[in-house]
Design brief:
Layout (H helix, E strand, L loop, with lengths): L1 H15 L3 H20 L10 H13 L4 H20 L26 H9 L6 H16 L3 H5 L6 E2 L4 E5 L5 E5 L2 H18 L19 H14 L10 H12 L4 H8 L4 H4 L1 H17 L4
Antiparallel strand pairs: 1-2, 2-3
Length: about 300
């Protein structure tokens, strides 16, 4: 089973071009699945039955996993078994009749424009860290990129003269995202006065680097966001995608069309982008309740 999982992950990397984080998630989920099957006495993927997959999912639910996590696990399992059938490593796909649990689309938490401004303002200063952090926050909000996309940016991906960034997203898909004057100014200042002093190796092409001159980590970016949210006295629960959610919501609130926002976010399916229209409706309901005489 482990050898087949390894072969499947290689296929996803080479043929499908999935991102490293996605590959690691699939590998982790499938290893849990294989371990559970071994406990049931199943050692060969060709012998897996529908009931055993259902039993695995039920076990996940008993362990307290969210519906989202169970759905992600099942998606990995379905892809794995389809791969085995396609490669003629198995004759039947036992997941054909396994239903995916129903998912409620949750409205993501977003920050107001004022909260975004306060957060970025909290990063003001002339020290190298403040200059770098402000550039990160400005670009994050101006582009709506994922955290992984932001930390993987190279200097060559940014065109300050024309005002855009070239982003490599999920599935190695490339997209061009325009950025505004504030983000351009913050990046210009960072590149001109800070980055060169931090980088110690001419072979380091990452746009954002740590104090050691290496590519900044996901954890560091996350700490930066949390730190300035705290300084701005924001009480809301901040998550990795909060600035991305805010970017999309604020664009739609101001009249941007859904297709353009979809393209900037890098969503392959417009239904994923439509969740942000729900956010706007929720905001309108709150305003109505607060100000209408019979709210």
């Amino acid at each position: 089973m482990d050898a087949l999982i390894k072969e499947f992950i290689n296929y996803l990397a080479v043929e499908r071009g999935l991102a490293d984080n996605t590959l690691l998630a699939y590998q982790r989920d499938l290893k849990k699945y294989a371990a559970c099957l071994r406990k049931m006495g199943v050692k060969d993927a060709k012998n897996v039955k529908r009931d055993q997959i259902t039993q695995f999912m039920y076990g996940q639910k008993k362990q307290g996993l969210s519906t989202n996590s169970i759905c992600r696990n099942l998606a990995a399992i379905k892809m794995f078994h389809r791969f085995l059938v396609r490669e003629r490593l198995a004759q039947e796909d036992p997941t054909n009749l396994v239903d995916t649990p129903k998912l409620w689309k949750r409205v993501p938490e977003v920050l107001t424009s004022g909260e975004i401004e306060a957060m970025i303002e909290a990063a003001k200063g002339q020290g190298w860290q403040a200059v770098r952090d402000k550039a990160i926050l400005e670009l994050f909000y101006a582009s709506g990129m994922r955290v992984s996309e932001l930390l993987n940016l190279k200097t060559e991906n940014v065109n300050l003269e024309l005002g855009y960034v070239r982003c490599i997203g999920k599935g190695r898909k490339e997209r061009i995202i325009p950025i505004g004057k504030r983000a351009r100014d913050a990046l210009q200042k960072y590149c001109a006065s800070v980055r060169g002093k931090l980088v110690k190796d001419d072979m380091t092409f990452s746009l954002f680097v740590s104090r050691l001159g290496k590519k900044i980590s996901r954890q560091s970016i996350w700490k930066i966001i949390k730190s300035y949210a705290r300084k701005a006295r924001i009480k809301k629960e901040i998550k990795p995608h909060t600035l991305r959610h805010s970017f999309a919501t604020h664009l739609l609130e101001r009249g941007a069309d859904l297709r353009s926002v979809q393209e900037m976010l890098g969503h392959s399916d417009i239904s994923t982008t439509q969740i942000y229209t729900h956010v706007d409706r929720e905001r309108l309901k709150t305003v109505h309740k607060q100000f209408h005489p019979r709210g």
